Amino acid sequence: MNYDIPTLAxxxxxxxxxxxxxxxxxxxxxxxxxxxxxxxxxxxxxxxSMRIGVTGSPGAGKSSFIEAFGRYIRTTxxxxxxxxxxxxxxxxxxxxxxxxxxMVNLARDEGAFIxxxxxxxxxxxxxxxxxxxxxxxxxxxxxxxIVETMGVGQAENEVASMTDCVLAMMLPNAGDELQGIKRGxxxxxxxxxxxxxxxxxxxxxxxxxxxxxxxxxxxRWKSSDWKPPVLKVSSHENKAMDEVWKYCTEFFGEAxxxxxxxxxxxxxxxxxxxxxxxxxxxxxxKSDEIRSAxxxxxxxxxxxxxxxxxxxxxxxxxxxxxxxxxQSKV
Length: 330
Description:
There is one protein chain. The chain has helices spanning about 5-15, 15-30, 30-40, 60-75, 105, 130-140, 155-160, 175-180, 185, 200-215, 240-250, 255-285, 290-300, 310-330, and strands spanning about 50-55, 80-85, 110-120, 145-150, 165-170, 190-195, 230. It is of the alpha/beta class.
C-alpha cells in the first residue's frame, strides 16, 4: 500500500485520531522504509508525555485498573493514550485484542485513545513497534501514554525499557507470588499497587502490602532519589486512583527530569541493540539457503549429531559469508 507520508505526519501532529490509527497501522506493517520515514517526520514533536508502564501477572486486574485510572487522569484534563498488548497465539498467530472491550467507558472519551496491539510473539509481552507507537501518540498530543503488558515472561524488564514509570500490579494474596518474583523484576518497579483492596479481599490486600513493604527493604532501586511506594487500590470502587496519580506526578516532577532524561537515553541505546539483533535475524531467515541449513541443523540436533552451540556458530558464519559475497557483487 502506498502512503502519503507528509500528509499522514501532518494529520498525526494535528491530533486527528483517524490519522493516528492509520499511522500506527503503518508502523505495525512490514513496510519499514515508510514507517521510519513517518516516525522521523514526527520526531520533533515527541518526548513530552508521561510514559507509564503497567505490568503484573494475568488476573491481577491490569485492564480494570487502567480503565479506572485513565478515567481519573481525564478529570485532570490530560489527554491519555493506552497501548494494550495482547498475546499472539503460537499456533495461529492470531490475537484476541480484547482490552478495548474491557475499557468501554474510557474508550468513549474523546480525550482518550486506546490501541490494542498483538505482541506478535515478542519476548516480554510488548509489541515490536510499541516504542514507535509511543512516539506517534506523543506527537498527536497525548500527555500521558500508558503501556499495558500481557504480563508474562520478561514483561517487567521490557516495559521498563520503554517507559519512565513502571506500575507493578500485585494480587491481594501476593505472599506466595512474591516468592516467585525475580529480584530484578521487582527492582524495575517504581510504584507497587495491590489490587482488589475491597470487600472480602480487603484484609488480604493489607497483608500483601505489608509483605511487599518488608521485601522492599532488601532491594536496590534504579534511582537513589526514589523509593517505590506501595499502594492499595480498588478499581471497582475507584479507590485510591487520586493517590496513584499523586505519586505519578511526583515521579515526573521537575527535580527528577535529569533522571528521566538519562533513562530515555539508555532506553534508546538498548532499543538500538535489540533492533540490530532482530533485523539481522530477519535478514538471515529471508535466505532459502540459510533456512535450509537451519532445518538440517534442527534435524542433526534432534539426532544428537551436533552441539546446538556449534550449529549456531556454523549458521552465523554461513550467513555473514553469504552477506559478504552478496556485498562484493553490488
